[in-house]
Specification:
By secondary structure, the chain is α/β, with parallel strands linked by helices. The chain has one domain: Aminopeptidase, CATH 3.40.630.20. It is built from 6 helices and 8 strands, in the order E-H-E-E-H-E-E-E-E-H-H-E-H-H. Strands 2-3-1-4-8-5 form a 6-stranded mixed β-sheet, sandwiched between helices. Strands 6-7 form a two-stranded antiparallel sheet. The relative contact order is 0.22. Bound molecules: pyroglutamic acid (PCA).
Length: 203
Protein backbone atom coordinates (compact mmCIF):
# COMPACT_ATOMS: atom_id res chain seq x y z
CA UNK A 1 0.00 0.00 0.00
CA UNK A 2 1.18 3.55 -0.75
CA UNK A 3 2.75 5.20 2.25
CA UNK A 4 2.14 8.69 3.48
CA UNK A 5 4.67 10.14 5.88
CA UNK A 6 3.07 12.31 8.56
CA UNK A 7 5.25 14.29 10.95
CA UNK A 8 4.63 16.33 14.08
CA UNK A 9 6.86 18.07 16.59
CA UNK A 10 7.76 17.62 20.23
CA UNK A 11 6.80 20.41 22.71
CA UNK A 12 8.85 23.62 22.62
CA UNK A 13 9.28 26.94 24.40
CA UNK A 14 6.53 27.46 27.00
CA UNK A 15 4.23 24.85 25.45
CA UNK A 16 4.18 21.75 27.58
CA UNK A 17 2.20 19.86 24.96
CA UNK A 18 2.33 19.82 21.23
CA UNK A 19 -0.95 18.44 19.83
CA UNK A 20 0.85 17.44 16.63
CA UNK A 21 2.92 14.93 18.59
CA UNK A 22 -0.14 13.10 19.92
CA UNK A 23 -1.98 13.32 16.61
CA UNK A 24 0.75 11.75 14.54
CA UNK A 25 1.20 8.98 17.12
CA UNK A 26 -2.52 8.19 16.88
CA UNK A 27 -2.38 7.97 13.08
CA UNK A 28 0.71 5.79 12.93
CA UNK A 29 0.11 2.66 10.82
CA UNK A 30 -3.54 3.58 10.31
CA UNK A 31 -4.98 3.39 6.80
CA UNK A 32 -6.50 6.74 5.80
CA UNK A 33 -7.82 7.51 2.33
CA UNK A 34 -6.05 4.48 0.92
CA UNK A 35 -2.65 5.48 2.36
CA UNK A 36 -0.76 3.63 5.02
CA UNK A 37 0.20 6.45 7.37
CA UNK A 38 3.71 6.31 8.80
CA UNK A 39 4.24 8.84 11.57
CA UNK A 40 7.31 10.42 13.07
CA UNK A 41 7.83 13.06 15.75
CA UNK A 42 10.60 15.57 15.07
CA UNK A 43 12.76 17.38 17.62
CA UNK A 44 12.52 21.17 17.81
CA UNK A 45 16.21 21.43 17.01
CA UNK A 46 17.71 23.20 14.02
CA UNK A 47 20.64 20.81 13.89
CA UNK A 48 18.60 17.61 13.86
CA UNK A 49 15.02 18.06 12.63
CA UNK A 50 15.41 18.34 8.87
CA UNK A 51 18.24 15.82 8.78
CA UNK A 52 16.06 13.26 10.56
CA UNK A 53 13.09 13.99 8.34
CA UNK A 54 15.10 13.52 5.15
CA UNK A 55 16.37 10.23 6.55
CA UNK A 56 12.79 9.12 7.28
CA UNK A 57 11.84 9.91 3.68
CA UNK A 58 14.71 7.72 2.46
CA UNK A 59 13.71 4.89 4.79
CA UNK A 60 9.98 4.87 4.21
CA UNK A 61 9.81 6.00 0.55
CA UNK A 62 6.43 7.71 0.94
CA UNK A 63 4.40 8.89 -2.03
CA UNK A 64 3.30 11.95 -0.07
CA UNK A 65 4.48 13.96 2.91
CA UNK A 66 2.44 16.06 5.31
CA UNK A 67 4.27 17.91 8.06
CA UNK A 68 2.32 19.27 11.04
CA UNK A 69 3.24 21.88 13.62
CA UNK A 70 1.62 23.94 16.32
CA UNK A 71 0.90 27.63 15.75
CA UNK A 72 -0.06 28.63 19.28
CA UNK A 73 -1.38 32.06 18.30
CA UNK A 74 -3.60 30.95 15.43
CA UNK A 75 -7.32 30.27 15.57
CA UNK A 76 -7.60 28.26 12.34
CA UNK A 77 -6.04 25.26 10.68
CA UNK A 78 -3.63 26.78 8.19
CA UNK A 79 -2.08 24.92 5.27
CA UNK A 80 1.10 26.82 4.44
CA UNK A 81 1.66 28.21 0.96
CA UNK A 82 5.39 28.92 1.12
CA UNK A 83 8.64 28.28 2.98
CA UNK A 84 11.46 30.83 2.88
CA UNK A 85 15.23 30.40 3.10
CA UNK A 86 15.63 31.95 6.54
CA UNK A 87 16.23 30.78 10.09
CA UNK A 88 15.56 33.67 12.47
CA UNK A 89 14.02 32.94 15.81
CA UNK A 90 14.00 32.51 19.52
CA UNK A 91 15.69 29.44 20.97
CA UNK A 92 15.03 25.91 19.82
CA UNK A 93 15.08 23.10 22.41
CA UNK A 94 18.89 22.96 22.24
CA UNK A 95 19.40 26.69 22.72
CA UNK A 96 20.12 27.63 19.07
CA UNK A 97 18.68 31.06 18.25
CA UNK A 98 19.73 31.89 14.69
CA UNK A 99 19.57 35.43 13.36
CA UNK A 100 19.02 36.02 9.63
CA UNK A 101 20.66 32.74 8.63
CA UNK A 102 19.99 31.05 5.31
CA UNK A 103 18.76 27.48 5.65
CA UNK A 104 20.64 26.52 2.47
CA UNK A 105 23.54 28.84 1.63
CA UNK A 106 22.90 30.08 -1.92
CA UNK A 107 19.56 28.20 -2.10
CA UNK A 108 16.43 29.61 -3.73
CA UNK A 109 14.62 32.32 -1.75
CA UNK A 110 11.54 30.13 -1.29
CA UNK A 111 9.59 27.01 -2.17
CA UNK A 112 5.86 26.63 -2.65
CA UNK A 113 3.98 23.78 -1.00
CA UNK A 114 3.18 21.03 -3.46
CA UNK A 115 0.09 19.94 -1.51
CA UNK A 116 -3.36 20.88 -2.89
CA UNK A 117 -3.67 23.58 -0.22
CA UNK A 118 -6.73 25.26 -1.68
CA UNK A 119 -8.68 22.01 -1.91
CA UNK A 120 -7.59 21.09 1.60
CA UNK A 121 -8.70 24.42 3.00
CA UNK A 122 -12.04 24.24 1.19
CA UNK A 123 -12.64 20.70 2.43
CA UNK A 124 -11.90 21.74 6.01
CA UNK A 125 -14.29 24.70 5.84
CA UNK A 126 -17.00 22.55 4.24
CA UNK A 127 -16.67 20.21 7.20
CA UNK A 128 -17.15 23.05 9.67
CA UNK A 129 -13.51 23.50 10.64
CA UNK A 130 -12.16 27.07 10.60
CA UNK A 131 -9.30 27.05 8.10
CA UNK A 132 -7.44 29.31 5.73
CA UNK A 133 -4.26 29.29 3.69
CA UNK A 134 -1.33 30.90 5.46
CA UNK A 135 1.21 32.89 3.48
CA UNK A 136 3.96 32.56 6.03
CA UNK A 137 5.18 29.53 7.93
CA UNK A 138 7.31 31.84 10.11
CA UNK A 139 11.09 31.60 10.43
CA UNK A 140 11.33 28.92 13.12
CA UNK A 141 11.47 25.12 12.92
CA UNK A 142 8.30 24.60 10.90
CA UNK A 143 9.47 26.84 8.09
CA UNK A 144 12.92 25.26 8.43
CA UNK A 145 11.75 21.69 7.86
CA UNK A 146 9.33 22.67 5.10
CA UNK A 147 12.06 24.53 3.19
CA UNK A 148 14.71 21.86 3.83
CA UNK A 149 12.48 19.04 2.65
CA UNK A 150 11.28 20.80 -0.51
CA UNK A 151 14.91 21.62 -1.31
CA UNK A 152 15.98 18.00 -0.67
CA UNK A 153 13.14 16.59 -2.80
CA UNK A 154 14.16 18.86 -5.64
CA UNK A 155 17.81 17.81 -5.31
CA UNK A 156 16.81 14.14 -5.37
CA UNK A 157 14.40 14.64 -8.28
CA UNK A 158 11.62 13.19 -6.08
CA UNK A 159 8.29 14.46 -7.29
CA UNK A 160 5.96 13.76 -4.36
CA UNK A 161 3.39 16.15 -2.89
CA UNK A 162 4.84 17.68 0.25
CA UNK A 163 3.96 20.56 2.50
CA UNK A 164 3.22 21.89 5.92
CA UNK A 165 0.06 22.50 7.91
CA UNK A 166 -0.03 24.53 11.12
CA UNK A 167 -2.71 23.65 13.65
CA UNK A 168 -4.08 25.82 16.47
CA UNK A 169 -3.61 24.92 20.14
CA UNK A 170 -6.04 22.65 21.94
CA UNK A 171 -8.78 23.99 24.15
CA UNK A 172 -6.89 22.77 27.24
CA UNK A 173 -3.72 24.62 26.21
CA UNK A 174 -5.54 27.94 26.02
CA UNK A 175 -7.66 27.59 29.17
CA UNK A 176 -5.43 29.72 31.40
CA UNK A 177 -3.01 31.38 29.06
CA UNK A 178 -4.61 32.84 26.05
CA UNK A 179 -6.94 35.53 24.82
CA UNK A 180 -8.56 33.09 22.44
CA UNK A 181 -10.00 29.60 22.76
CA UNK A 182 -8.24 26.64 21.21
CA UNK A 183 -9.78 23.74 19.30
CA UNK A 184 -11.04 20.50 20.84
CA UNK A 185 -8.31 17.96 20.25
CA UNK A 186 -10.74 15.77 18.31
CA UNK A 187 -11.37 18.61 15.82
CA UNK A 188 -7.66 18.96 15.16
CA UNK A 189 -7.48 15.21 14.63
CA UNK A 190 -10.50 15.33 12.29
CA UNK A 191 -8.76 18.09 10.33
CA UNK A 192 -5.78 15.88 9.70
CA UNK A 193 -8.03 13.09 8.46
CA UNK A 194 -9.79 15.53 6.09
CA UNK A 195 -6.43 16.81 4.83
CA UNK A 196 -5.19 13.28 4.11
CA UNK A 197 -8.47 12.34 2.40
CA UNK A 198 -8.24 15.41 0.15
CA UNK A 199 -4.79 14.35 -0.91
CA UNK A 200 -5.98 10.84 -1.62
CA UNK A 201 -8.75 12.21 -3.89
CA UNK A 202 -6.02 13.93 -5.91
CA UNK A 203 -3.80 10.87 -6.38
N1 LIG B 1 5.66 24.73 15.86
C1 LIG B 1 6.85 25.55 15.72
C2 LIG B 1 8.00 24.58 15.79
C3 LIG B 1 7.44 23.30 16.26
C4 LIG B 1 5.98 23.45 16.21
O1 LIG B 1 5.14 22.57 16.41
C5 LIG B 1 6.81 26.45 14.49
O2 LIG B 1 5.73 26.92 14.12
O3 LIG B 1 7.85 26.71 13.89
Amino acid sequence: MSKLLLTGFEPFLEHRHNPTEQIVREFDEEVVGGFEVISRVLPVDYERASEMLIEYIEQCEPIALIMLGLAADRTKVTPERIAINVNDSVEDNSGNAPVDQPIVEGGPAAYFSTLPIKKMTDALVQNGIPAEISNTAGTYLCNNVMYSVLYALEQKGLDIPAGFVHVPPTFEMTLHHSAHTGFPFTSIRDSVRIIINTLSDEE
